[in-house]
Amino acid sequence: MKESGRKQGASSPCAACKLLRRRCAQDCVFAPYFPADEPQKFANVHKVFGASNINKMLQELPLHQRGDAVSSMVYEANARVRDPVYGCVGAISSLQQQIDALQTQLAMAQAEVVHLRQFN
Amino acid sequence: MKESGRKQGASSPCAACKLLRRRCAQDCVFAPYFPADEPQKFANVHKVFGASNINKMLQELPLHQRGDAVSSMVYEANARVRDPVYGCVGAISSLQQQIDALQTQLAMAQAEVVHLRQFN
After folding, report:
1. Contact B49/A52, CB-based, under 8 Å?
2. What is the ipTM of this complex?
3. Are B51 and B8 found together in one domain?
4. Whole-prediction pTM value?
5. Is B72 found in the same domain as B44?
6. Helix B63-82 to helix A87-118 angle, to the nearest 10 degrees?
7. Considering only CB atoms, which chain B residues are within 8 Å of A86?
Protein backbone atom coordinates (compact mmCIF):
# COMPACT_ATOMS: atom_id res chain seq x y z
CA MET A 1 0.00 0.00 0.00
CA LYS A 2 1.44 3.36 -1.00
CA GLU A 3 0.54 6.60 0.82
CA SER A 4 -0.62 9.52 -1.31
CA GLY A 5 2.64 11.35 -0.59
CA ARG A 6 4.62 8.73 -2.51
CA LYS A 7 4.07 9.95 -6.02
CA GLN A 8 7.41 8.83 -7.37
CA GLY A 9 7.22 5.15 -6.46
CA ALA A 10 7.63 3.19 -3.22
CA SER A 11 11.39 3.75 -3.03
CA SER A 12 11.13 7.55 -3.17
CA PRO A 13 11.04 9.18 0.28
CA CYS A 14 8.46 11.86 1.11
CA ALA A 15 9.61 15.51 1.28
CA ALA A 16 9.97 15.29 5.08
CA CYS A 17 12.14 12.15 5.12
CA LYS A 18 14.22 13.53 2.23
CA LEU A 19 14.98 16.76 4.13
CA LEU A 20 15.60 14.86 7.39
CA ARG A 21 17.77 12.33 5.47
CA ARG A 22 16.03 9.31 6.94
CA ARG A 23 14.36 6.21 5.54
CA CYS A 24 10.70 6.81 4.65
CA ALA A 25 8.85 3.92 6.34
CA GLN A 26 5.60 2.42 5.02
CA ASP A 27 3.74 4.00 7.96
CA CYS A 28 5.57 7.37 7.80
CA VAL A 29 3.35 9.96 9.54
CA PHE A 30 4.48 12.72 7.13
CA ALA A 31 4.24 10.91 3.77
CA PRO A 32 0.47 11.36 3.18
CA TYR A 33 0.78 15.15 3.55
CA PHE A 34 4.26 16.02 2.30
CA PRO A 35 4.78 14.59 -1.20
CA ALA A 36 8.30 14.51 -2.64
CA ASP A 37 7.38 16.99 -5.36
CA GLU A 38 6.53 19.78 -2.86
CA PRO A 39 9.78 20.14 -0.88
CA GLN A 40 9.12 23.78 0.18
CA LYS A 41 5.86 22.79 1.91
CA PHE A 42 7.75 20.69 4.47
CA ALA A 43 10.82 22.98 4.59
CA ASN A 44 8.73 25.88 5.95
CA VAL A 45 6.79 23.90 8.60
CA HIS A 46 10.06 22.28 9.68
CA LYS A 47 11.76 25.69 9.98
CA VAL A 48 8.89 27.13 12.04
CA PHE A 49 7.51 24.21 14.09
CA GLY A 50 10.25 21.59 13.84
CA ALA A 51 9.77 18.06 12.53
CA SER A 52 9.58 16.57 16.02
CA ASN A 53 6.75 18.90 17.11
CA ILE A 54 4.82 18.31 13.87
CA ASN A 55 5.22 14.55 14.36
CA LYS A 56 3.93 14.81 17.97
CA MET A 57 0.99 17.07 17.00
CA LEU A 58 -0.04 14.72 14.17
CA GLN A 59 0.25 11.59 16.36
CA GLU A 60 -2.09 13.20 18.91
CA LEU A 61 -4.82 13.70 16.28
CA PRO A 62 -7.16 11.13 14.71
CA LEU A 63 -6.31 10.36 11.06
CA HIS A 64 -9.32 12.24 9.65
CA GLN A 65 -8.18 15.54 11.23
CA ARG A 66 -4.51 15.38 10.22
CA GLY A 67 -4.98 16.82 6.72
CA ASP A 68 -6.65 19.96 8.10
CA ALA A 69 -4.00 20.26 10.83
CA VAL A 70 -1.21 20.07 8.21
CA SER A 71 -2.96 22.68 6.02
CA SER A 72 -3.29 25.13 8.92
CA MET A 73 0.33 24.55 10.00
CA VAL A 74 1.56 25.10 6.42
CA TYR A 75 -0.48 28.34 6.27
CA GLU A 76 0.95 29.53 9.60
CA ALA A 77 4.50 28.55 8.67
CA ASN A 78 4.36 30.32 5.29
CA ALA A 79 3.00 33.46 7.01
CA ARG A 80 5.83 33.33 9.58
CA VAL A 81 8.49 32.90 6.86
CA ARG A 82 7.04 35.90 4.95
CA ASP A 83 6.67 38.01 8.12
CA PRO A 84 9.02 36.80 10.89
CA VAL A 85 7.74 39.41 13.38
CA TYR A 86 3.95 39.05 13.15
CA GLY A 87 3.34 35.84 11.14
CA CYS A 88 -0.35 35.17 10.59
CA VAL A 89 -1.21 37.33 13.62
CA GLY A 90 -0.54 40.21 11.18
CA ALA A 91 -3.39 38.89 9.00
CA ILE A 92 -5.66 38.70 12.07
CA SER A 93 -4.96 42.36 12.96
CA SER A 94 -5.61 43.44 9.39
CA LEU A 95 -8.92 41.50 9.23
CA GLN A 96 -9.99 43.02 12.57
CA GLN A 97 -9.30 46.51 11.18
CA GLN A 98 -11.42 45.68 8.11
CA ILE A 99 -14.25 44.55 10.43
CA ASP A 100 -14.04 47.81 12.43
CA ALA A 101 -14.17 49.87 9.21
CA LEU A 102 -17.13 47.86 7.82
CA GLN A 103 -19.04 48.19 11.13
CA THR A 104 -18.56 51.97 11.02
CA GLN A 105 -19.74 52.16 7.38
CA LEU A 106 -22.73 49.92 8.17
CA ALA A 107 -23.75 52.02 11.19
CA MET A 108 -23.61 55.17 9.01
CA ALA A 109 -25.65 53.58 6.21
CA GLN A 110 -28.24 52.27 8.71
CA ALA A 111 -28.50 55.71 10.35
CA GLU A 112 -29.10 57.25 6.92
CA VAL A 113 -31.85 54.70 6.21
CA VAL A 114 -33.59 55.65 9.48
CA HIS A 115 -33.22 59.35 8.65
CA LEU A 116 -34.56 58.99 5.09
CA ARG A 117 -37.54 56.91 6.25
CA GLN A 118 -38.67 59.78 8.49
CA PHE A 119 -39.31 61.91 5.40
CA ASN A 120 -41.02 59.25 3.32
CA MET B 1 22.50 44.15 34.98
CA LYS B 2 19.25 42.25 35.30
CA GLU B 3 17.02 41.58 32.29
CA SER B 4 13.33 42.41 32.69
CA GLY B 5 12.52 38.70 32.81
CA ARG B 6 14.45 38.24 36.06
CA LYS B 7 11.85 39.40 38.51
CA GLN B 8 12.94 37.14 41.33
CA GLY B 9 16.58 38.22 41.58
CA ALA B 10 19.70 37.58 39.52
CA SER B 11 20.02 33.95 40.60
CA SER B 12 16.48 33.00 39.48
CA PRO B 13 16.35 31.55 35.95
CA CYS B 14 13.78 32.80 33.42
CA ALA B 15 10.78 30.56 32.65
CA ALA B 16 12.51 29.17 29.54
CA CYS B 17 15.77 28.18 31.27
CA LYS B 18 13.78 26.76 34.19
CA LEU B 19 11.75 24.50 31.86
CA LEU B 20 14.84 23.55 29.83
CA ARG B 21 16.78 22.94 33.10
CA ARG B 22 19.75 25.02 32.05
CA ARG B 23 21.72 27.92 33.53
CA CYS B 24 20.14 31.28 32.70
CA ALA B 25 23.06 33.36 31.36
CA GLN B 26 23.31 37.15 31.70
CA ASP B 27 22.68 37.46 27.94
CA CYS B 28 19.92 34.79 27.79
CA VAL B 29 17.84 35.49 24.65
CA PHE B 30 14.61 34.32 26.37
CA ALA B 31 14.91 36.10 29.74
CA PRO B 32 13.57 39.54 28.66
CA TYR B 33 10.36 37.96 27.33
CA PHE B 34 9.72 34.92 29.52
CA PRO B 35 9.72 35.93 33.20
CA ALA B 36 9.91 33.21 35.84
CA ASP B 37 6.43 34.06 37.14
CA GLU B 38 4.73 33.22 33.79
CA PRO B 39 5.79 29.58 33.20
CA GLN B 40 2.80 28.74 30.95
CA LYS B 41 3.76 31.48 28.46
CA PHE B 42 6.99 29.66 27.58
CA ALA B 43 5.54 26.16 28.00
CA ASN B 44 3.07 26.72 25.14
CA VAL B 45 5.53 28.30 22.67
CA HIS B 46 8.01 25.52 23.48
CA LYS B 47 5.36 22.86 22.87
CA VAL B 48 4.34 24.37 19.52
CA PHE B 49 7.51 25.93 18.05
CA GLY B 50 10.28 24.34 20.13
CA ALA B 51 12.88 26.28 22.14
CA SER B 52 15.54 25.87 19.45
CA ASN B 53 13.33 27.38 16.71
CA ILE B 54 12.25 30.28 18.96
CA ASN B 55 15.91 30.94 19.81
CA LYS B 56 16.84 30.94 16.09
CA MET B 57 13.88 33.17 15.11
CA LEU B 58 14.71 35.70 17.85
CA GLN B 59 18.43 35.76 17.00
CA GLU B 60 17.53 36.58 13.37
CA LEU B 61 15.56 39.69 14.44
CA PRO B 62 16.83 43.06 15.67
CA LEU B 63 16.29 43.63 19.41
CA HIS B 64 13.47 46.16 18.93
CA GLN B 65 11.31 43.64 17.02
CA ARG B 66 11.75 40.67 19.37
CA GLY B 67 9.01 41.70 21.83
CA ASP B 68 6.40 41.81 19.04
CA ALA B 69 7.67 38.50 17.60
CA VAL B 70 7.34 36.83 21.02
CA SER B 71 3.81 38.25 21.48
CA SER B 72 2.68 36.92 18.11
CA MET B 73 4.30 33.50 18.74
CA VAL B 74 2.62 33.29 22.18
CA TYR B 75 -0.73 34.17 20.55
CA GLU B 76 -0.25 31.51 17.85
CA ALA B 77 0.93 28.88 20.34
CA ASN B 78 -2.00 29.46 22.71
CA ALA B 79 -4.41 29.20 19.75
CA ARG B 80 -2.77 25.91 18.64
CA VAL B 81 -2.96 24.46 22.18
CA ARG B 82 -6.67 25.40 22.39
CA ASP B 83 -7.41 24.14 18.86
CA PRO B 84 -4.81 21.57 17.71
CA VAL B 85 -6.43 21.17 14.26
CA TYR B 86 -6.90 24.78 13.11
CA GLY B 87 -4.89 26.92 15.58
CA CYS B 88 -5.18 30.63 14.81
CA VAL B 89 -6.12 29.83 11.19
CA GLY B 90 -9.55 29.05 12.73
CA ALA B 91 -9.73 32.69 13.93
CA ILE B 92 -8.79 33.88 10.41
CA SER B 93 -11.63 31.85 8.83
CA SER B 94 -14.10 33.15 11.38
CA LEU B 95 -13.02 36.80 10.80
CA GLN B 96 -13.31 36.32 7.03
CA GLN B 97 -16.87 35.01 7.49
CA GLN B 98 -17.69 38.08 9.60
CA ILE B 99 -16.32 40.31 6.82
CA ASP B 100 -18.45 38.54 4.20
CA ALA B 101 -21.57 38.97 6.37
CA LEU B 102 -20.84 42.66 7.04
CA GLN B 103 -20.23 43.33 3.32
CA THR B 104 -23.60 41.76 2.48
CA GLN B 105 -25.38 43.82 5.17
CA LEU B 106 -23.59 47.00 4.00
CA ALA B 107 -24.55 46.41 0.35
CA MET B 108 -28.20 45.96 1.40
CA ALA B 109 -28.22 49.11 3.54
CA GLN B 110 -26.57 51.13 0.75
CA ALA B 111 -29.11 49.83 -1.78
CA GLU B 112 -31.91 50.90 0.56
CA VAL B 113 -30.37 54.38 0.88
CA VAL B 114 -30.32 54.71 -2.94
CA HIS B 115 -33.93 53.50 -3.14
CA LEU B 116 -35.20 55.86 -0.40
CA ARG B 117 -33.41 58.87 -1.95
CA GLN B 118 -35.35 58.36 -5.18
CA PHE B 119 -38.56 59.23 -3.34
CA ASN B 120 -37.23 62.22 -1.39
Report:
1. no
2. 0.81
3. yes
4. 0.83
5. yes
6. 80
7. 68-69, 72
